[in-house]
Amino acid sequence: MSEILPAGKANYQETHNGMCIQGISYSEEDLNQSAQVVANICFDTRGQEDFENYILSLSDTGFSPIKTILPKIRDWQVGEGFAEAYLTAHFSCDFPWSNNRDLKNPNSSLTGADMVGFHQGEFAFGEVKTSNEQRYPPQVTSKKGDGLNAQLKKLCHDHDGRWLLVQYLFHRVKGTIEYKKACIAYLKNNHNFYVFGVLVRDVDIKINDWDYLKKHLEVHGETRVSLVALYLPKNDGIQKLHAAVLSKEAKS
Amino acid sequence: MITHDTLKKIDTHWAVLAVGNEKFRQSILQFSKSKLVENAVGEQLALHLDDSFNDEDALRRLAMAYEMVAIEGMHDFINHTDNDELQDQFLAGSRRAFEIYRVLEFPENDELKFIFHLLHLSALAYCGDCWTDLKHIYDDYSDKIDNLLPDKITEWDQRILFNLFDCWVSLFRKNSWQDLTNITTAITVLRDEQDQYENDYLKTDSNNESQAKSMRLMSLYHWAKATELLSLYTLQGEPADIKSQLDRHFKLAVKISGDAGDAQLEILLRWMHASAEQMVNGSIWWIARTINSKATRFITNLANQAKPLLELLPPQKIAVKELGLLDPAKTAVVVDMPTSGGKTLLAQFKILQAVNNFGETKGWIAYIAPTKALVAQITRRLRKDFSPIGIKVEKLSGAIEIDVLEEDLLSDAESFDILVATPEKMQLVLRNHKIDRPLSLLVMDEAHNIEDESRGLRIELLLATVKQHYQAKANFLLLMPYVENAKTLSRWLAHDRDAGLAISLSTSPWQPNERIIGMIKKQVSGSDWTINYQTLVTSPDTIHLKGNHQIGETRPIPVSQSSANLSKIVAGCAKVFANRGTSIVVAKTKPNAWSLARVLSDNMDDLENIPPQILLVQNYLKAEVSPEFELIKMLNKGIGIHHGDLSDEIKALMEWLVEEGTLKILCATTTIAQGINFPVSSIFLQSYKISVDAKYSRNMSHREFWNLAGRAGRVRQDNIGVVGIACDTPEKERELIEYVKESTGDLTSRLIAILKLLEERGKLNDLESMMYAPQWEDFRCYIAHLLNEKKELQATLNEMDQMLSNTFGYSELKSINPRQSEQLLDATKKYTESIAKNMGNVARADMTGFSVESVRNASKEIDQLEYKLITSDWMPDSLFGSSESKLPDLFSVMFKIEQLNFTPDEEQGRRKSRIADIAQAWIRGETIQDIAISFFDGSGSDEISKVYKTIYGKLANGGTWGLSALSRISGIDFDTLSDEQKRQLNLMPAMLYHGVKSEESVLMRMNSVPRSFAEKLGSKFKQEVENRNVVTARQYLRGLVDSDWNTATSHSQYLSGKDCKKVWQILSGEAED
After folding, report:
1. Which of B37, B100, B709, B1033 is 20 to 30 A from B928 via CA?
2. Residue B296 has what pLDDT?
């Protein structure tokens, strides 16, 4: 079992208004090979335990305990794990803090980015959407509020939001040379960072997936925004990946 | 702690260097300062900067860089690690980041963003010790804050968040006890609402979302609990383990939000955690743990005031927590702190410590303030804060004699714990051992007066006296601004080498607010003129914005450009800036102050609604001075006057009006620099020179200048204080530029300064005869005192070296110029030998405060009178009420005694019968207006000033001192006098001082009753109370009801009983009912 995500097959590649766009497809075999890497990213064995302790800690606050259960892992989380594994393996990205993804709030406007890390000595921020919708482009790219376009736009242009992510990362990796290097580059010029938008799909491979973003997304600098579509086997690729990842969960 | 070094150090941090080279960063900082100035005073001052740099993006990056510096040390700060360097880095980084973030645009259109932004900014300010600057930000956005209505929000997480925001605004602002009490209520309400809102909020299709939302709530619940704990601690000092409890809740809140990937909440919570830590560090409760139970009661009292004091200013915190102000092993502490840094509170802590150490011996504390006004102000403050905890505070009058009522006070061990007085008065008390109890602590306020030309030596010798007589038990606390050699001073006063402590914070980076100091001059354009303002490079640092900026519009005072002289220029500045808060105009002379007030009065409109405070003062002036007094009309426009030729009461009321925020402009003279305790928004000086007399002027000392400039800008209100100095020639401009650049330098002894002068004039070899010059008068008095104490010449000579070593000057001289110290010792010994020939005169000198030469001179003059003075001549009835009064002759004697300072230029006052007549009219109770008409041919401001000058400048000082001293020199055998005669004799100077004619009225006046009503209230007091002294008089006044006050004021058409009571409350510092 490989610890690196397979490269997949390049299906299309172009640049458009400073954005690098590419589509990569994966076979079922590729998926099986990917399962462990993705599982490593997705699972947090301490999650459940911590969550229960958090609920118990409320007795000191005067508020009543909250009644919720820890959910199972979801498709979009597996998609994010796959995307992160891909960027790490094939864009030389490093996302040093990606644990506990299973607890993240997918809809909160206050959350940061799906991925925060480094790329070529600079900060890298990434957003991932998983969709099996048979529309091109899928609505996850255009949806107001938390669509991929809105999220990437925020990453490209919202100084304050980005600065939060830089700090967020700092509290987790402070003191590393990699962080310092990226931070210096960023403080020299706050356009010195990379943005990745990743679509995880199990539909026909079409570059039209990016039509909305090509039309609407204004980037912060030439070649600093990469849009990557990862095409899993058609129809049930996402489900299959999910099942494969879950099978790894049992083993870990 | 934040120091210049830590700030300098972070400038070389990798994050800061990443932004750009130093030149670039300087441009960014300059840009941020200009934005700050523009935001604060843009309406008054149009900036025309030389540097057009305006890169907002760079500004943001530099702010981020400093924040990065801070967060690198945040963990160490929160967890109190051993790494002090990183902790300091955290504080310094926060400060610098705040200084830039505060000028960046606020996200006003998005409520949630606004909340996060303001809390983040507040945290940076707090951690950077800039919380006093926050106040104006809250003021600017108060509408926005008030319009955020948490109760209207139904989304549960936001409802909590908005409520917590409200709570933290209260915690950061600390405006009122009620605000803080409301926090507990708000958190309790949130707990009650949990059932109502939580389920709906958590209802989603997705378990994941529900889970994430749950985590957000859990994080917020922990934050809410921490908030509640912090508010309780802020109010009551409990729980005692506050830090560990806060740590627990904040760490959980941070961890949970982090696990939920909620970056924004997590980062904010980290900053809130650090702020909470900092808030506890600065809390008065945290500080109080180091003192004693009395301090806890004192602090409870401070915390419960209408404007609660719950937190120390950064320099106060540093002084107590880090620099050992309360270390009991330090017997001499010298605190050098910026103006408005809160020195008085530090003195109060030290006093509490001393009171606690009184033990069985009933000790006392001497508190010395330089002026009568400050004595009154400090007494009011100490009494207000200390009387609830049973510490008694009394003050002595400014007269240089101790009258019988004061004798009563001093000899009664139960009457006071703290005694407040001027240096001259305290010197009499201490040299004559008037208090038979151990002196525990001597506090000297504005102790930099040690270098003052006319009083410095006296103050130094007062301290030397305490060292000589009381050192074994008495500790010292000297408070002063801008003194670089505080350490030398503390070492001088300390019992031994290690017992001195200098707390030097004047030049620390913390200042009450930022300041611009600049040159103001006329800019002519055709027939028009404008006021040009150029900021200057100063030491200590202030904001310097290169360029020519314009104050106000063209012709701010509507006169032609040729008539626009220095007065018009400063008046124009004050008029423009008055809209921002009280502006002080400092005139060179007292008549100038009046004429400036007139210019302003002619060019300003009446206030739309005259505030009740101004109406009260106007009524007081009508009753006490004259209904036509010019100041009354000026007050209609919000213009006040403050200078030496006004009564202490008027000055105190002017100060009160400034404190109440009702005066727009106060026209004053440089005397206002002497320790006024009311900060103002802007100060404009006609010149930085002080008129010594009609012909000569001298530069304000740098310390005086900075002490005055330091008042510009209000702690917690204005973020920029504005100071302007007028110039009208290129030469003056050059001088001014150099003047403000020079540092305040070391404090030097007058003794050394005088010797240096003699050396320069080549007269040092003739020191023995030079010692008879007026500037040596205080020194000669001191020597007479030493001799009188020893009683024996040889013993005095033997110990002279050791005794002189108690002075700052001689002790310094011995190490820096041994030869000169020997010369001084020799000359002093010779002088001692010469005065020892008549020990009677030495004793009389010590008793009266006169020099031996003055005693000799006075005796000679008295002997030359055509008659021999007898006891009855000295009785008040005879002296002040009879046509046979000897007062004119006594004044003729006093005129010849230089020490009494009846300056020869006083043509009118030199006429002995005239000044005696004025004295009699004053004691008879004639109004100021009547005295002005009778003796100065009119009742205009000039004439009224002359009356006050005669009364307060002559009668109350030289007059009372002279009469008291002459009565003791005149040959009366005190032993043969009856008790009543002694009492009458000793009362006489007090009557002259207060302008009343009975003992009971004096007691009323000593307790701040306006003179017009003192006789009536005094006689009522006499009828109703048997045991009459200062303390019972105050108790009596406190117990009076409105009808009593009405009776006392029934003869006045201007001041009602209620008004009179209010004035009494203001002047005496009595709390309102």
Report:
1. B1033
2. 82
pLDDT tens track for B911-966: 668 889 999 999 999 999 999 999 998 888 888 988 998 998 889 889 999 999 99
Q: Count A/B contacts: CB-CB distance under 8 Å.
A: 156
- In 10 A of CB B304, how many CB atoms? 12
Report the DSSP beta bridge partners of residue B332: B476, B500
Closest to A103 (Cβ–Cβ): which among B60, B228, B259? B259
* Of B191, B209, B270, Cβ closest to residue A63: B191
Give residues 704 to 763 of B whose Cβ lies within 8 Å of A.
none
Q: Write the DSSP string, B98-150.
A: HHHHTTSPP-TT-HHHHHHHHHHHHHHHHHTT-HHHHHHHHHHTHHHHHH--G
Please calculate the CA angle A163-A165-A169 and round it to the nearest 5 degrees.
120
Task: Answer yes or no: do B222 and A104 touch at CB < 8 A.
Answer: no
Q: Give the residue from chain A lying closest to B258, CA to CA.
A: A168
Test B61 with A190 for CB contact under 8 angstroms. Answer: yes
> Sorting pLDDT into bands at 50, 70 and 90, what band is A1?
very low
CA distance B207 to chain A (A): 5
Could you say which residues from 24 to 83 on chain A have a Cβ atom under 8 Å away from some Cβ of chain B? 47, 50-51, 54-55, 57-58, 60-64, 66, 68-72, 74, 77
Interchain pair B270, A112: CB under 8 A: no
Residue B217 contacts A, CB cutoff 8 Å:
yes
Place of tokens 């004091």: B309
Residues 570-609 of chain B whose Cβ lies under 8 A from any Cβ of chain A: none
Kindly state whether residues B141 and B125 are assigned to the same domain.
Answer: yes
The DSSP output letter for A233 is S
ipTM for this model: 0.91
For residue A108, the model assigns a pLDDT of 44
* Residue B769 and residue B695 in one domain: no
Residue with tokens 């005129």: B895
Question: Are the beta carbons of B91 and B127 closer than 8 angstroms?
Answer: yes
Residues B575 and B598 in one domain: yes
Confirm whether B580 is domain-assigned: yes
Q: Tell me, yes or no, whether B299 lies in a domain.
A: no
Model confidence at B288: pLDDT above 80: no
Query: What is the rounded CA–CA span in Å between residue B297 and residue B955?
Result: 43
Residues 110-149 of B with CB under 8 A from A: 112-113, 117
pLDDT at A44: 61
Q: What angle do CA A66, A72, A78 make, to 5 degrees?
A: 130
Residues B135 and B175 in one domain: yes
Q: Between chains, do B71 and A63 touch, taking CB under 8 Å as contact? A: no
Question: Based on the structure, what is the number of domains in chain B?
Answer: 6
Distance CA(B506)–CA(B508), nearest Å, equals 6
pLDDT of residue B974: 82
pLDDT surpassing 70 at residue A184? yes
pLDDT (tens digit per residue) in B142-175: 999 999 888 888 899 999 999 999 999 999 998 8
In terms of Cβ atoms closer than 10 Å to its own Cβ (0-12, 13-18, 19+), residue B290 is middle
CATH number of the domain where residue B499 is located: 3.40.50.300
Asked whether the beta carbons of residue A110 and residue B225 sit closer than 8 angstroms, the reply is no
Is residue A251 pLDDT above 50, yes or no? no
Are B90 and B117 contained in the same domain? no
**Partners of residue A168 in chain B, C-beta under 8 Å:** 258, 263, 266-267
Report whether pLDDT(A110) > 50: no
Residues B491 and B520 in one domain: no
Residue B965: inside a domain, yes or no? Answer: yes
CA torsion sign for B883, B889, B890, B894 is positive
Say how far apart CA B892 and CA B896 lie, in whole Å. Answer: 7
Q: Give domain status of residue B840, yes or no.
A: yes
Q: Which residue of B has its CA nearest to A106?
A: B209
Q: Are residues B706 and B559 in the same domain?
A: yes
Average pLDDT (B227-244) is: 94
> Is residue B164 within 8 angstroms of chain A, CB to CB?
no
Range of the domain at B908: 860-1068
